Amino acid sequence: MEADDLAPATIAIIAGRPKRQPDAPLNEAVSFASTFHAGGPVAYGRDGNPTWTAFEDALGALEGGTALAFASGMAASMAVLDEVPIGGVVVAPVQSYYGTRKLLGDAPDGRWTVRFVDIADTKATLDACSGADLLFAESPTNPLLEVADLSALCAGAHDRGVVVAVDNTFATPLGQRPLGHGADVVVHSVTKFLAGHSDVILGATVTHFGKGELHDRLRRRRSSHGAIPGPMEAFLALRGLRTLALRYERAEANAGVLAQRLVDHPAVERVRYPGLPADAWHDRAAAQMTGPGFMISFEMFGGAPVAEAVARSGRLIVHATSLGGIETTIERRGRWPGEEATPPSLLRLSVGCENVDDIWRDLEHALTIGTCAGTPGLSPIAFQGIVVPRPLPGEPRRCPMGGRRSG
Fold first, then answer.
1. Cβ proximity of 352 and 251 under 8 Å
2. Residue 133: its pLDDT value, please?
3. Domain C-terminal end among 219, 242, 265
4. Does 197 lie in the same domain as 332?
């Protein structure tokens, strides 16, 4: 059967397998080798590895292109950014993954000029693309979950002679396939939901089948820069990919339930989730994504101290900076230097595959602690590294406890 005839859930399970023959293994083995017999295309361990190839075959089939595995998502992003000529122009979202913004901002003087844009504003983004070399888009964005109009951006950027890269980490190829919207290359932090078990650092690019020259340049850059993955990491990522559809379906379903419950919670000021009809990006997400995904961001009444109290109060939910694991994690992104533009009370929730009612009970418990931090007359709540102050008696509550909050 051809891959075009199969559902993504099936492709994730069958792609990247060894040939079927009697007594052949079902899984590609981990190839621990730095040197290969001469006469073939690999020859040396920086140029290829059978375990990488198996993972790349599977991811490429899912995205509808040709994949390359890298040592990390940052390595994959840097390989794409190195396509920009010295003194060139990069257009990138002002609200996006901090690591990408840091790569762009820490470059030596004269390496490139960066035009930061609101990626959800299609006209402003395309205006910024005039005279640019690369549009490095992200959708949904991290952590505000803004949704870019990928088809319009890709078409408009190409009309201006601009290469388009899309970070698809949050959506995964099950949520959207940017190559089908016209992107030239897709970037993934495989560390996150693709591998899915919080045990792998890995990245990937996927290029359109018609972009063989770009794929070859990225492959040579991976080798010459030493940005290669380990074979064990590739094996674990491929094993994680086998359950991608199952995990995604469960996490997305959980996220839909939790997002609505957060909307109804009086301590929550705003919920950002493109699956909510009231969300600003609901219609755009529905038009280009198969579903709203597993990420939720929400803002607390009471500011950063209250949000920090919520993040640190989970008993089941893990307080951690990464995301996309089978377990639910939470973090206040504004606690990091460089995230000053992020609302200080915003919490980023990566929804996992636990029972949704168990997640909600723990989250509700954490929200109660955060609410108590805004209630007059009680003693301060002390956490390691932070004290949440109480208002003086007679001061208004920092967290109104009545009424519904819209998304």
1. yes
2. 98
3. 242
4. no
Whether residues 223 and 315 fall in one domain: no
Could you tell me the CA-to-CA distances from 226 to 48, 266, 273 in Å, in that order? 12, 51, 38
10-residue block means of pLDDT along the chain (407 residues)?
81 95 92 92 92 97 97 98 98 95 95 98 98 98 97 98 98 98 98 98 95 95 97 98 98 98 95 96 96 97 90 94 96 91 96 98 92 62 53 50 38
CATH label of the domain that carries residue 326: 3.90.1150.10
Residue 357 forms part of a structural domain: yes
Other Cβ atoms less than 10 A from the Cβ of 324: the count is: 27
Question: Please, which contacts does 82-85 make with residues 24 or more away whose CB atoms are closer than 8 Å?
Answer: 82/221, 83/133, 83/134, 83/163, 83/214, 83/217, 84/112, 84/133, 84/134, 85/133
315 domain residue, yes or no:
yes
Q: Indicate if 250 and 230 belong to the same structural domain.
A: no
Q: How far apart are CA 346 and CA 144, in angstroms?
A: 9
In terms of domains, do 78 and 209 share one? yes
- Kindly name the residue from 133, 149, 167, 362 that is annotated as catalytic: 167
Measure the CA–CA gap between 373 and 367, rounded to whole angstroms: 10
Instruction: Name the domain count of the chain.
Output: 2
Residue from 17, 46, 111, 219 carrying the catalytic annotation: 46
The model's pTM is: 0.90
Q: Which one of 101, 192, 247, 250 is the catalytic residue?
A: 192
Determine whether 102 is an active site residue.
Answer: no
Active site residue 279: no
With H, G, I as helix, E, B as strand and everything else as coil, classify residue 328: coil
Residues 93 and 232 in one domain: yes
In a domain, 265, yes or no: yes
**What is the total residue count of the chain?**
407
Is there a domain that residue 394 lies in? no
How far is Cα 272 from Cα 259, in angstroms, rounded to an integer? 8
Please indicate, yes or no, whether residues 217 and 331 belong to a single structural domain of this protein. no
Q: How many CA atoms lie within 13 A of 19 on its CB side?
A: 2
Residues spanned by the domain of 338: 245-388
> Which strands, in side-by-side order, build the sheet including 346-350?
268-272, 295-300, 346-350, 329-332, 318-319
Residue 120: give its domain's CATH number: 3.40.640.10
291, two tokens: 């579903």
